[in-house]
Design a protein that fits this description.
Layout lengths: L3 H7 L7 E6 L14 H4 L3 H7 L3 E6 L9 H8 L11 H8 L9 E10 L5 E3 L7 H11 L8 E8 L2 E7 L30 H18 L7 E8 L7 H5 L3 E4 L3 H9 L3 E2 L6 H10 L6 E6 L1 H7 L3 H19 L5 E5 L16 E6 L13 H4 L5 E4 L3 H8 L9
Parallel strand pairs: 1-10, 1-11, 2-13, 8-9, 8-10
Antiparallel strand pairs: 2-12, 3-4, 3-6, 3-7, 5-6, 11-12
Helix pairs in contact: 5-9, 10-12, 11-12
Length: 401
């Protein structure tokens, strides 16, 4: 991986514009009945047309065989090493809703969940409760008091919220309480080092109080916590690449990722059409746009093959409106795969295409996993995406004599 200080020396400002469209969880696996993935099953008139004008390949978010979370997968697309720059989900959730984190605050992602009368997790997402229901439950949890610690609970979206603990000697070195599967009981928070014992006691007390309060509120009658983290300080995106960068995302966590690396997060609505309009409105102000589409991931996690196909088709219909803005370089990809067959993130590589006037299109005729295997780029690390975008936007000087 090329060090950031070398990239910063090579990076130059130019008028050209880059658009990176990330369809979260884009990659999939074939449906046994048809042998086709969600992407291959979708009507892709505009995505396929773009593929025919592009160079294509498959990105590897972290390393072959490693299933990535959304945080490291996106950081890799932004050019960061997903191993050394690992960021906890709690911080990303807090930043995503604009919570004013202090340096020693400890944040964790909350999933409202459903447990049965035996204390077994039967739904890790509480049926994806409405965000308004989430707000009502969060208001109840705000009444929890723990001596010596301030507790802040905030709604993120649907079944997801965030808790922030503020006090002395709080450690992020805790295990998650989310077992990441159903049919088993929730896990207690465990200290991963002796200095975190006190923090584990604080967290487990909070969970116990939350369980008491939520007991009558099935399906959201329990909480699962993960991603305990404090605020990290990463090199800033604009300093590395000399870009005026904007992020457009409906989902809070991805706004948090963008804020963490120093992008401007643009207010937008709840639909992809709203996101496209936000890009159009601010097109003159920035030279890099990160545009995020969530529902290819959500539907994959739900195991809903048909809904994921429809989500892909929603992006396909909107793509001409983005292309009409005239980006000098446009790339379309995902952060990771979320096959509906797995109902979870997968380790499979992710389809990628890039169009610019400075690349000779390859022979790929359609934007699918199988077709992208035959593309010019082959399989390559996701962290190299930014270098390709920068080069094709003529924003990198020559390296060496």
């Amino acid at each position: 991986m090329i060090p950031f200080d070398v990239i910063a020396e090579l990076a130059i400002q130019t008028p050209s514009k880059i658009l990176l469209l990330v369809m979260d969880g884009l990659g999939g696996l074939p449906r046994p009945e048809t042998g086709l993935t969600e992407l291959a099953s979708a009507t892709r008139t505009n995505l396929d047309a773009l593929a025919r004008e592009s160079i294509c390949g498959l990105t590897v978010p972290v390393a072959p065989g490693i299933t990535p979370g959304s945080g490291p997968a996106h950081l890799a697309l932004f050019g960061y090493d997903p191993i050394s720059c690992l960021v906890g989900r709690g911080v990303l959730s807090a930043l995503g809703i604009g919570f004013p984190l202090e340096p020693t605050d400890l944040a964790a992602r909350i999933n409202f969940a459903t447990i049965d009368e035996h204390g077994i997790v039967i739904d890790r997402r509480a049926g994806r409760i409405a965000t308004e229901t989430n707000r009502q439950l969060v208001q109840l949890l705000r009444g929890i008091q723990i001596p010596g610690v301030q507790v802040f609970v905030e709604t993120e979206s649907m079944h997801r919220a965030v808790v922030i603990f503020r006090g002395p000697n709080l450690s992020p070195h805790l295990s998650d309480t989310d077992p990441q599967r159903t049919g088993v009981p929730p896990l207690p928070a465990r200290a991963l080092e002796p200095a975190a014992e006190h923090t584990a006691e604080v967290v487990n007390r909070f969970i116990a109080e939350a369980a008491r309060i939520l007991k009558p509120h099935r399906p959201a009658n329990y909480i699962l916590l993960r991603g305990f983290s404090t605020y990290p300080h990463l090199p800033q995106f604009g300093d590395i690449y000399k870009l005026r960068a904007a992020a457009v995302a409906t989902y809070p966590m991805y706004r948090g990722l963008a804020r963490l690396v120093g992008m401007d997060v643009l207010p937008t609505g709840e639909t992809f059409a709203d996101e496209v309009e936000t890009v159009r409105t601010h097109w003159a102000q920035y030279d890099f746009f990160f545009v995020h589409f969530k529902y290819t991931d959500t539907t994959g996690e739900d195991g809903d093959f048909t809904a994921k196909v429809l989500a892909i088709e929603e992006v396909d219909r909107a793509l001409p409106d983005l292309l009409a803005l005239g980006p000098d370089v446009i790339a379309v990809t995902g952060d990771h795969s979320t096959p509906s067959l797995l109902r979870a993130h997968g380790w499979q590589p992710v389809p990628f295409m890039l169009r610019s006037r400075y690349e000779v299109p390859d022979d790929v005729q359609e934007f699918t996993e199988r077709a992208c295997q035959r593309g010019t780029l082959g399989r390559f690390p996701a962290r190299d995406v930014m270098l390709l975008l920068m080069a094709n936007a003529l924003k990198l000087e020559k390296y060496g004599a």
